[in-house]
Design brief:
The protein is α/β, with parallel strands linked by helices. It folds into 3 domains: 10-245, Rossmann fold (3-Layer(aba) Sandwich); 350-409 and 423-459, Luciferase, domain 3 (Roll), CATH 2.30.38; 464-585, 2-Layer Sandwich (GMP Synthetase, Chain A, domain 3), CATH 3.30.300.30. The protein is built from 19 helices and 28 strands. Helix 2 (44-61) crosses helix 3 (78-90), helix 7 (192-206) packs across helix 8 and helix 11 packs across helix 12 (306-316).
Amino acid sequence: MPHQLQHRTLTDAVRDGVHRHPERTAFVYLHEDGPDLRPEELSYAELDRRARVVATRLREAAKGDPTRPVLLLYPPTLDFVTAFIGCFYAGRTAIPAPLPDEPGERLARVSSILRDAEVGAVLTLPEYRQAIGAWLTATGIPDVACLSTGAEDDAGVDAGLWVPPAVRDTDVAFLQYSSGSTSEPKGVMVTHANLAANEEAIRTAMRTPDGVVTGSWLPLYHDMGLIGMTLQPLWVGGTSVQMSPVSFIKQPHRWLRMIHDYRVEGTASPDFGYELCVRRVTEEQSAGLDLSSLRVALNGAEPVRAGTLRAFVQRFAGHGLRPEVVLPSYGLAENTLLVSSGDTEAPHLELTVDAHALERDELRPARSDRAGRTLVGCGRPTDTEALIVDPVSLEVLPDGRVGEIWLRGPSVAAGYWNRPELTAQTFRAETADGRSGYFRTGDLGALLDGELYVTGRIKEMLIQHGRNLYPQDIEQTVQDSGEAFRRGGGAVFTVADRADGRSHVVVVQELRSRAAVDTDLPQLAASVQALLSRRFQLAGVSVVLVRQGVIRKTTSGKTQRTLMRQLFLDGALPVLHQRLQRPVADLLPATDVTPEPAAASPRP
């Protein structure tokens, strides 16, 4: 049932905050300053003034069609926030994107966004304007204004010239380019109505109080960091405290210290962020830490692991962390952000099921004589209707059956920018019994007593000898088997035999730095093969051992298995050691490794 909207647009929310408490801090950004973090604050009044200046400059500098989107290329600082809000104040469609400050994959991704979105203007900082201007010229796209924002550039612009834009609920507020875990990035069209609906869904699900304080290290151009940690506090007149992802990765305890220092009530992270804190925050770093202010710590954006949740709660329970605070959740850009989350006043749900039944797409209680797998409940959908549908027959499945997750509701985005055919296929799906207007997520999961359990991605599913295997299960099994393997540093996928089309499993696994030097690598690769033969009855797995940092991830921490498959087939992985089956080796451009003979298939 739709919630009563607190605001119609984000502009309304910010302006309401300016009216009610102009001097309240809207944002705090923690800059790295040697070993310390230096805060920069921005009040509601100053945010409003800067946003009005940006909007006025955009209107004056418009080239060609002023309805073309505006690309935001900033480091993760408050300048991005003022530019993003400025686009709303101008009635322009914003595109958050990573700063293309390094060659290779990031530059290629932003270049593809520039072309796909038919960008009309770019906003950035003065120090990047010349380089970005040269890049725009090189792309050959005409009539793109490049504006830098900041004190000098904005000086002399009268914020009083700003005129509130006339926007419709159905206008596209911003384009959220997907992070591309299984495919090329696509621009998700989030309307003003979508954003308002999802911000209200988050407020209701999280029981977000007015004036909430949130804290995050997530990228500002990613949906969880942007909508959940940056815009949700603005929606309720609160304060958002932020640091860069790099600051967190270098010293994870900074995130927890931020929560302590600013009495943060809500935060969020992919699973690996919590695991990193458990593994790397020392007793000395956590001394005197008080996490009792936390009401919500969302875990989402990648598979939520029961072991990570338990370990994080156990590690920091002595610092005031309550178990019910850590909430598994499920969301995606095509639903603006949040689909479902756990209950803020009760511990999350876990369900241990029969692993063999799960391979046949059924949730059945685990048996003592057979392997089990523990699934984490991601809560109940908030303002979105969720169905579990057979992806082939399109039949709606009953409770306890695994199928594709389909969604329908006010948070579901309008579609993909400039891709009408894909939008029709993906956002206008119809079930076998005639129910229409659903978004096909491509995610696999099941509903049981109203709780949503997410099990994996359709495109990444491994089908071996009639069984459905999840790559994340195999990756975790390998990483749990020894200290040499880096947690979160694996990618499992299949490649097809040229001769008969049979699929073969490939495991690419990062080694810890010391293990790459001190370990018998041939023996380590053989141990992985033996382990997977025992645990999953997978004979003849090809194993590729690589250094730390090779596995590609999306901005939210998801493993890009499709990209890793392509890099493997292109021979583009910096391999430390590999044991390849002959059909797999034959697929590569060249290899100096003698392939193993093809292994016999396991008996059913």
